Amino acid sequence: MPASPPPRRRRSWLSVLMVLLFIGALVGGAWYLVHRAKTPVAATAGGPGGPGSGGPGGPGGPFGGGRGPGGGVTVGSARAVQGDLPVLIDALGTVTPPVTATLVPQVGGVLAEVLFTEGQSVKKGQVLARIDPRQYEQALAQAKGQRAKDEAQLSAARLTLQRYQRLWDQDSIARQDVDTQAALVKQLEGVVEADRASERAAQLNVGYTTIRSPIDGRIGLRTVDPGNLVSAGSTTGIATVTQMNPIDVVFSVPQDRVPDVLAAQKAAGAGKLPVQALNRERTQQLAEGRFLTLDNQVNVSTGTVKAKARYANADGTLFPNQFVNVRLQLGTVSGVLVPVTAVRTGPQGDYVYVVDDQHTAHMRAVTRGLATVDQILIEKGVQAGERVVTEGGDRVKDGGKVQLGGSGGSGSGAGGGADDAAAGAAGASAGASAAGSAGRRRGASAPAGAGTAPVGASAAAPAASTGNSEPKVAPAQAQQAQAASNSGASSAPAGAASASTYNLDDPAKRPPWWDRLPPEVQQKLLAMSPDERRAYLQELRERRRAAREAGQ
Description:
The structure is a single chain. Helices cover 33% and strands 25% of the residues. The protein is an alpha+beta fold and 552 residues long. The strands form 4 sheets. Strands 1, 16, 17, 18, 21 and 22 form a 6-stranded mixed β-sheet that branches. Helix 6 packs parallel to helix 10. The longest helix has 36 residues, at 134-169. The radius of gyration is 45 Å and the shape is elongated.
């Protein structure tokens, strides 16, 4: 008999077989997951993430391929309008006080008193500090004494000159003595004038020991405390006084816009052009002032010209050396306005997608003009009243069909409040409508708010993907949708007008039916942007309308 193989070799073949089976299972699982992600399950075709819905994650939703029920790409749109676009120059400016004065002592000595509080407002001429004046008062007294002495000598010399002149008239003395005495009088007169100047200088030094504010403004932090020795002409000084109102803002204007600024200033008049000072985010106006002037030369390193605007600053909003955003308005320009997001740039230049009445998008070259943060002036290519694509244009093709996700306003898209209002008006889903059709066949009339059941009802009634457009609802799903419709219809908003105050992003402003939605639906809605939520709700309306027509 042949010898049986060793047990060790049998165990090795068994191990190899198990490894191969494990690898095969991994490959099969990966293949299954990949094909499952590409092909949605038919039972979820009517839910928020199914291929037939406009929900997030489905091909019709904002996170899917963007295809609506009509086969077109779901896009946001707005109409071009005829209006006035403000001509603005935005720049970064620095708040600069017109006058800044440093309190530098003009005489040296001990700082005896500080008579101000740091940060207080001071007036011109107000006493702020005192230096010990005693040494300067003694110097003044000494100057006065010297002047009195020299004045006495001058008086004696004048009397002697008068005697010499009488004797000269009598021919009793020589002419030389008279001339010498006259010269001595003039010499003493000069000495007295010098003494008077020394006295006035000593008087000034005494006055300099009292430090006064040279301007109206706000005083800063002191750098020297009382009792310290200060010297004349120190670089730091005792404190700094800054003029707060009025106050200036210095900013830069591109050299290409200098002619526009000069023309606007000439047309409006000196000091009439409005200039706004905005905060860092450009969301709040800090102050409004008037344009003053431009500098007399261009900075060759930056290609800009310095400009200055003045603000009253009565409330002290602007602070010295503060950085602000400056917006200079030169006037307005009339033309066709579209949102900034509508204009795209390609190899042939700027273009927009114009949507006609058949929901067909046409690429059209445009010539853009001036622009603001949210609007662009179209000089050529678009007429007022035409609808242009503002969101989702990267998926649009020239001549392709589009599905409008919502009508944007003139120059801006719909906001979050409009989306929440639409949630109340289009909350009922295809499943809820199919379940409600059974009640209509029984002769019962649906309540007025049945059309505003929670959006979550759309997820409770998925339609089976059978190849036709008529949804089929399972009994349990129909009961769940009917219960959602009965419980949520009365508390849902009656229309967009009453629901306009709802805001899904704010927990305090969510609608009453929000808590009855499934958690996964709540998370999907909160994860959507306003445009995606608007497109999703538009899909819900279409599905609800189609289901209602199929149930009749």
